[in-house]
Amino acid sequence: MLEIKNVSKRYFKTVQALQNVSLTIGKGEIIGLFGENGAGKTTLLKCILGYLGYEGEILLDGEEIGRRNIARLSFATCEHSFFPNLTPRDHCEFYKMHFGAFRQKRFEALMDFFGLPQNSALKSYSTGQQNQFEVIMALCQGAEYILMDEPFAGNDIFNREDFYKVLLGILESGETVFLSTHLIEEVERFVSRAVVLRSGRVLGDVNVLELEEKGASLTEYIKDCYHYRSDRVSRALDKLTGE
Prior knowledge:
Blueprint: E1 2-11, E2 15-25, E3 30-34, H1 41-49, E4 55-60, E5 63-64, E6 73-77, H2 88-98, H3 104-114, H4 127-140, E7 145-149, H5 157-170, E8 176-180, H6 184-187, E9 193-198, E10 201-207, H7 208-213, H8 218-225, H9 232-241
Parallel strand pairs: 3-8, 3-9, 6-7, 7-8
Antiparallel strand pairs: 1-2, 1-4, 4-5, 9-10
C-alpha cells in the first residue's frame, strides 16, 4: 500500500504547489490523476518518487521510499528518463542488469505492438515514439506501482485507444497504475478511480463505477469539482464583441 500523508510542497518558499495532500493507494488500482495546468499533478508524482523534497510522509507498506524499495515504483514521464544515444535493445539489457523482475516477454510484445525498431538510437525516434518507449520501460521494469505523467503526448488517438485496451489485458492483479492526464474522456472507461487536484489540494476522490451507477460521467464529476461554468465561452465572447 502506498500512503501519502499530509504532503505539502512549496517552490521558492512562496509558491504552494501541494497543500496537505492525503491519499491511500492500494495494489491493483488504476487511478486517474486529473486537474488543470498547475494543479500539482506532476509535483505529486515527483514527490512520491523522491525527486523533490516535501513536508509530510509518503510510505510504501509502512516504510519510507528509498534505495531499498524504490525499484517497486516506476515512472513514465513526457520529460523522458532514457539515454538518447542508446538503443531500446541496450536499454533492455541495462534494465535486466538492475531490475531482477524485468519483464522481457512484455517488452518484446509492446515493442512489436508499437512497431518500434530495437536497434536504432532513441534520439532518432519521433516524440510520439519516444513517449511510447518511455511507457514500455515503466511497464516492463517489474514495478508494482507504475506512475505515468502525460505519457501519451504526441501520440495519435488510434495508438492511444488501442494501448488502453492492451494495458488492461497485460496488467496483473498486483500492479497499480497512477496516471496523470488531461485526456479525461479517453481514460474514463480505463481508470477505476479518479483523484482531482486543484491548486495543490485534493478536490475529489471517487470510484468511477459508482459514478456510472449514478448515471454521471467522469467529465461531469470533474467539472462539478471545479465549479465549471457552462457560460464561460459566451461570457468571454460577449466581452470581446462588446455586447
